[in-house]
Every structure is written in C-alpha cells, then in structure tokens.
Amino acid sequence: METSKKITNFIREIIDADIASGKNQGRVHTRFPPEPNGYLHIGHAKAICLSFGIARDYKGLCNLRFDDTNPETEETEYVESIKEDVRWLGFDWQEREYYASDYFEKLYAYAEELIKKGKAYVCDLSQEEIRKYRGTLTEPGKNSPYRKRSVEENLGLFRRMRAGEFEDGSRVLRAKIDMVSAHLIMRDPPLYRIKHISHHRSGDKWCIYPMYDFAHCLSDSIEGITHSICTLEFANNRPLYEWILGQLEVHRPKQLEFARLNLSHTVLSKRKLLQLVEEKLVSGWDDPRMPTLSGLRRRGYTPESIKNFCETIGVAKFNSIVDIVVLENSLREELNKTCPRVMGVLRPLKVIITNYPEDKQELLDAVNNPEDETCGVRKIPFSRTLYIEQDDFLEEPPKKFFRLAPGREVRLRYAYFIKCLKAVKDEKTGRISEVHCIYDPATRGGDSPDGRKVKGTLHWVSAPHAIKAEIRLYDHLFTKRNANEAEEGADFKSNLNSDSLEILTDCRLEPSLKEAGPQSRYQFERMGYFCLDSKSSTGSLPVFNRIVALRDSWAKVEKPGRNKKT
Ligand code: ATP
Ligand code: MG
C-alpha cells in the first residue's frame, strides 16, 4: 500500500487536533481488540487498517488485544487464526500481544475499589428482574432492593462470589449510577457475572467474569491507549466507558466510533458466519466463498487488494452497504497489473485441424503480460488436436455471434486463423463431440498477411500437451444485496445462493501451469483470475479457484449485451 499518500478522515482530524493541543504528550496509541469467538472477516480488516494504519502513519503503536472475557464462546483456535490474519494483512503488533484475561486480577481490584467508593453493589435480582427494573426508553427504571447494601456487605458478597460460593446467575456486581438516566446503559449496568466455566487461558482460576463494558475501557486504560477506535454500535456505551474511568481516576483514552463495514451479498457477523460453518452450509471458515480473511486468502485475494479496498471505502459516521463489486474491482485492478496470462479451457470441446500433419507439433510465442513487457514471452505447444471452450462454438449461430461456427473463420490466440468445416456428433447422444477445422499456415502468430480480418479470437490448448485440472467457480454467497434482511418467518440463510459454487472436473490447461505454486495467480485469458487451491489439490489433479471473473458478471445480468464476448 502506498503510504506516501495522505489519508484523511474524521478520526485522523480528531487525532491531529489532540496532537496539536498536546494531549497525551503527542502520543498516538491504538489497539485492535477482537473477541476470539470466530475468524476475522473483511469488516475486521477495515478496523485493522484503521487502527494499525493510524499507528503507522503517526509513528505510534497499535496493540493486538484479545477481548477474551466470555469463556463460553472463546477458543485458542480462533486466537491463532486471528494472529495469522492480521500478520497476513501486513501489520505487526511486535511484542504487544495482550489478553483482557491477563488483567483479571487488576480488573477485580478495580471492582473492589468501586465498591469501596460506594459506586458498585452486589445485586440478587435475577436477570429477568433486572430487565424489568430497568425500564425502557420512555419509562424510568426502579432501584433494586439491594442497592442500599453497605460497602462491607458488598465487599463480603463480592469476595464470596469470587470464591465460588454462589451459583451461576444468582448474583451480579452492578455499577451504582442512575436508574432514571436517559441512557439505558447507565441504569446500574452489571459489571461482573458468575460463570462456573473454564476459560481458554485462565483455566478454572475464575468463576466470575467481567462484562465487556467494564473490561474494555479498563484494558484500554491499563495499556495507555490514547484513541480507542470502535464501531458505531458502541456509541451507546460511551457514557459508561467514561463513567468507569472517571470513578477510578485512571488514564482516560478517548473512544471514537466509525461506521462498520457492511458488504452486499454477504453477512459480516461472526455469529452468522459460525452458523454457516456449523450447519455445514459452507466447507469451513476458510471456504473461498466466505467473507472471512481466511476465505478470501484461500480464494486468491491479496492483502494489498484488501488494504486498497479499505482505503477506497474510507471512514464515515453513518452506516451503509458497500457493493461487493467495489471489493472485486480492487482485486481486479491489482491482478490485471501483476498476473501472467495463460490459457485454460474450462469446458472443453475438441477441435481437429484436418490439414495439420498428424505427427507435427510446434512451439508458438505467447506474451506473458501485455501490461508489463518485462514479463517476456513463453512457448506454448500447438498440434493437430486442440480444445476450445464449448461456448465458443455454435452450429447455428445468431448473427452477432463472432466465434466459431460452420463456415466461419476465427483467430486462435498466438497461433493461426482456423476455419470450421463441420461439427461431428455423437451418434448416441446427438451432442457435438468434435469440430473439424482447417488452418491457414500463412497466419502463424495470429496475423493474416493479406489483411484479412476476423472478428473473434479464441483461447485454446493443445490436447496432447494439456494438463487436466478441476476448476471451482464461485458466485456471491447470498442472492440478496442486503443478505441480513429475510422474508417474514425466515432467517438470513434463506437468502443463500444455491448456485454459489460450480465445480468443473474436466478442464484442460496449458502445460506451463504445472509450475503453479500455492502463491501464484494467473489470468486465464477471457475466463478470469485463478489460483491453485492448495488445500484440495492432490498430486494427480490440481484444483484451481476462480478468484474473480474478468468483469462483474452480475452487471451483465442487469444489462444484457454490455459485456459481449468477442
Ligand atoms: P461481529 O459483529 O462480526 O460478531 P464483533 O464486533 O463482535 O463482530 P469483535 O471481535 O468484537 O467482533 O471486533 C473487533 C473489532 O472489529 C471491534 O473494534 C469492532 O468494532 C470491529 N469490527 C467488527 N465488525 C466490523 C465491521 N463490519 N466493520 C468494521 N469494523 C468491525
Ligand atoms: Mg464484539
């Protein structure tokens, strides 16, 4: 990513003003605080680029902090995947890998301090009762009958909560703020709950766990964070964030909220993505259709294309849905510049060049990347038997069809002009089994010396030289632009696209693709960008993912004719 370009947004403007006024001695220290309860998705990439990007540009620091205060849903597998994904994007937290669970002892001490200050109490109401007492946006709340407990009684009970004397859900520690506050979050919110559950890091040491609102602001404070950047949903929590830090007289980071990324035709919620994984509606968190960073990586996305995307969409204060085409275009732009061109036939149709000698073969020059001359040329074999795309031949073509048909002449890319004599059909099925053509030897390289023009240029591979491969074509995971929005009585899964994966098992690729490694990406001429799927490829049959088609195929559906093939 270019770092010379000056990025600006409202968050950076606030930071500039803070630096100008000498706040935090001019320090900038951010953090990315994932909860390890799922794999990161493209929305997290936006948050990562923002917090790590600010630290980089202001010569500050960004911590990676696992917000692991909810032992029920958190796992080490997720911690590992999150680290891999942040590193893959190209960001470095150096030695600053922190865990909210490492602060449990400190957080507990802060809770006792609040109790001693008369700012927190142990409440025996059930969850249900607490909800009833809270009131609503239009009705004030009511004080809990336990609100008047003495400091000594509260301290004793809280210590016994920690010691494991009480059952899950029987008591909570609550902040003593204001049951009639206009902010519902300020109506004596719970700070600690009892859960006799092992934690993935602290084991069975604790049976009380801090709530997000208590743990988060104090973790930020403990780490000396200056700007705590989070998504808009947390704007509601900001009064509580500030209240807790204010009561304890500790370092006070500033919480800044930005609009989360919503992407069309997918869902960006770990809870929903987990459902897709658990219900086996996708092959895993790294299914190439998933909007997870591991899915995008396996699909063939590059970190640069994702970072450029995050920069393009910018940072705003209102929520909107970004079209997934913006992400795809960011990738296309990069791949167009960097990918070598090769030829591969996805749905092969045999072509026999009847005037080409049976025992002859030759090597022709093909340009590796017309966008980058330094990539040079390669040799591709040509012979009497070739494959072209089934779609590139029609026995009875409409007028505007410029590809191969009986009596018509086309160019084979980097090879010759060929003219079709006839189609041969399988007697049993009636389907076209091969096409017979003649070639014009004078057109070697794909140009006619007599100035004769052809309208179509087809890609092809030499049958005896081709390698066999499986190719997986992907479409949007959901059919609806807002995939979260379901019909009455249905949920988001009813929007799943049943055609999001197409597997082609009989593809033929030019022999240079034998060299394809897990990191190589190619443009298959006319068919899109592809990469090896290292997870499914076996020695005998390589598997390629289509990363993205050359153009947005959904636009084609809306505007027929716009993306006419040659
Ligand atoms: P989800 O809604 O997917 O469950 P989350 O907010 O619970 O996500 P966290 O692990 O708590 O996930 O998120 C870590 C950070 O990433 C938070 O600061 C959060 O605001 C940010 N984040 C999460 N989703 C998005 C998104 N769609 N766009 C931008 N930032 C996001
Ligand atoms: Mg969260």
Structural notes for this entry:
The structure is a single chain. The protein has 566 residues and is of the alpha/beta class. The chain has three domains: 10-258, HUPs (Rossmann fold, 3-Layer(aba) Sandwich), CATH 3.40.50.620; 262-338, Orthogonal Bundle (Glutamyl-tRNA Synthetase, domain 2); 346-465, Beta Barrel (Ribosomal Protein L25, Chain P), CATH 2.40.240.10. Helices cover 25% and strands 23% of the residues. A seven-stranded mixed sheet has the order 12-25-26-27-23-24-13. A hairpin with a 4-residue loop joins strand 18 (409-412) and strand 19 (417-425). Helix 11 packs across helix 12 (324-338). The site of adenosine-5'-triphosphate has 16 residues, from helix 2, strand 8 and helix 9.
Q: Could you give a short description of this structure?
A:
This protein is α/β, with parallel strands linked by helices and 566 residues long. The protein contains 13 helices and 27 strands.
- Overall pLDDT confidence: 94
Order of the strands making up the biggest sheet: 12-25-26-27-23-24-13
Structural class: alpha/beta
CATH class of the largest domain: Alpha Beta
Name given to the CATH homologous superfamily of the largest domain: HUPs
Structural Rg: 31 Å
Distance between the termini: 35 Å
- Sheet having the most strands: 7 strands, mixed
Query: How many helix segments?
Result: 13
Let me know the number of strands: 27
Uncertain regions spanning at least 5 consecutive residues: 556-566
User: Which bin fits the share of residues in helices?
Assistant: 25-40%
CATH architecture descriptor name of the largest domain: 3-Layer(aba) Sandwich
CATH topology of the largest domain: Rossmann fold
Strand content: 15-25%
Structurally, the number of domains stands at 3
Which molecules other than protein and nucleic acid are bound?
Answer: adenosine-5'-triphosphate, magnesium ion
